[in-house]
Design brief:
Low-confidence stretches: none
Distance between the termini: 57 Å
Structural class: mainly alpha
Radius of gyration: 35 Å
Largest sheet: 2 strands, antiparallel
Oligomer: single chain
Number of helices: 8
Order of helices and strands: HEEHEHEEHHEHHH
Helix content: 40-55%
Number of domains: 1
Shape: rod-shaped
CATH architecture: Up-down Bundle
């Protein structure tokens, strides 16, 4: 394309500027150059799109959502664990359970100590003192506090199934191993489940820190909480130290597996 095709010279002798051939007036001096601008060649016009792309849509919004952003799902699994524990406590206090000690796990397992107690023991916080039963309010409060914190954090990362699986393996598995290796004692509470949730959430951050990557957890606070939970068997006879160790092991393995799944 020649220079003449690209520009025209303003007719005003005092201006003489080179302007586009598609304007009707000189933009510098205002001199009328032509009555109307010529049409653009079809080859120079932008190509029309063959079809219109569909507009992305997230569907109908749920409450507390804004367009383009989905709200985090609620900690349903964590809430179910806490509500189940509170339900057993209310039933025991209200006299709907005649002897809550019968819900604790005890070895050796058999006809006198059925297997289903492994499922009820993590939700039962009671101990015997002589012939009377003693509630474990402090043990229950500390355990449920850790379940609420780390269960919620883990559920935000990996969903409800991960929380239920980790808690079940830590709590029920801890009661099972305690009943097998330490017979003649009654075990209850979910110290193993709480430690499993804590470790499953903390291990990915520990691995990221070791690799020199950014991590978002307060590992010092996590360590203090873990030590406090591991020390509970020193003051509460129904809290099994074996269950606590099983919970730490389950949490470490689960956390390492979840971290590998995320590519850490």
């Amino acid at each position: 394309m020649s220079r003449a095709d690209l520009f025209v010279v303003c007719k005003n002798p005092e201006c003489g500027a080179e302007v586009s051939p598609y304007v009707t007036e000189c933009p510098y001096c205002g001199t009328r150059l032509q009555k109307r601008a010529p049409k653009l060649d079809r080859a120079l016009q932008p190509a029309r799109r063959a079809r219109r792309m569909p507009t992305p849509s997230l569907g109908r919004l749920r409450p507390d959502e804004i367009p383009g952003i989905r709200a985090d799902s609620g900690p349903y699994a964590t809430a179910a664990i806490i509500l189940g524990t509170c339900g057993v406590w209310v039933a025991a206090r209200g006299g709907y359970i005649n002897n809550p000690v019968n819900l604790l796990a005890r070895g050796p397992l058999g006809a006198a100590n059925p297997w289903w107690r492994l499922l009820s023991a993590p939700f039962t916080y009671v101990a015997t003192s002589g012939t009377s039963q003693v509630g474990s309010g402090a043990y229950q409060f500390v355990t449920l506090l850790l379940v609420a914190i780390f269960g919620w954090l883990l559920e935000r990362r990996h969903g409800a199934l991960a929380v239920l699986g980790v808690f079940a393996l830590g709590a029920v598995g801890g009661e099972l191993v305690s009943a097998l290796v330490w017979t003649g004692r009654s075990w209850g509470g979910a110290n193993g489940g709480a430690l499993a949730l804590l470790c499953a959430w903390a291990v990915p951050d520990l691995l990221a820190r070791r690799a020199g990557h950014d991590y978002g957890g307060d590992l010092l606070g996590v360590g203090v909480a873990a030590v406090a939970m591991l020390a509970l068997p020193l003051v509460r006879p129904e809290a099994s130290p074996v269950a606590g160790g099983v919970g730490v092991l389950v949490g470490y393995l689960a956390g390492a597996g979840l971290a590998r799944r995320q590519g850490h």
